[in-house]
Amino acid sequence: MLAIPTLATRRLLLRAFTEGDADPLYVILCGRDVLRYFPEGPPPTRETAVRMITRILQHWEERGYGLWAVESRETGELMGRCGLNFIAETGETEGDVILGVPFWGRGYATEAIEGSLRYAAGNLDLGGIVGIVHPENAASRRLLDKVGMKLTGPARYFGMDCLRYVLERPELLRRYVAS
User: What CATH class is the domain 7-176?
Assistant: First the structure.
């Protein structure tokens, strides 16, 4: 069993998911507009959250990196998920974040993604990291700009027309390796 590292940022813990996270993750996924820019599908169920956690833990085992549970250091509350996800269809690694509605607009997504990027820069030999965003998702586009990703243009991912951003390895290392 792979030991998933725990990362601490100023306000967050990025930690391994546990079975106990299924109920709070389900509540997050059901939040208004949380999945607005994701591919069409049935509404999430508790089983959706359980399957998501199982896939996340399998991804860690297969790849040696993945998504973390995002937890408030102050309250211990599960806030969402964040990290690095391999996209089999393209062979790329995506920076990925989903936070519950109460945590939007307060810099938590930036803090979580930057923690993930620091981990990638210091521990993984990736050629770069992509950001995939629905063209209408202005908040996520600003986030990707803020963390140093550059827009490469329109692309198709997960059956949707998206915008593709990238943070190439030299820039990843320049921005996120501790000096």
Answer: alpha beta
Contact 97, 108 (CB under 8 A): no
Distance CA 91, CA 14 (A): 24
pLDDT digits (tens, 9 = 90+) for 8-64: 999 999 999 999 999 999 988 877 776 666 666 667 778 988 999 999 999 999 999
CA 95/CA 11 separation, integer angstroms: 19
Report how far residue 41's alpha carbon sits from residue 149's, in angstroms, rounded to the nearest whole number. 28
pLDDT in tens, 117-140: 999 999 999 999 999 998 988 889
Contact of 112 with 97, CB cutoff 8 Å: yes
As a residue count, the chain comes to 179
Q: Which two tokens stand for residue 126?
A: 């990736």
Amino acid, res. 102: P
| First-to-last C-alpha distance (Å) of the chain | 32
Q: Which two tokens stand for residue 153?
A: 């243009």
Rounded CA gap, 49 and 135, in Å?
26
Residue found under tokens 């399998």: 58
- Does residue 85 or residue 158 have the better pLDDT? 85
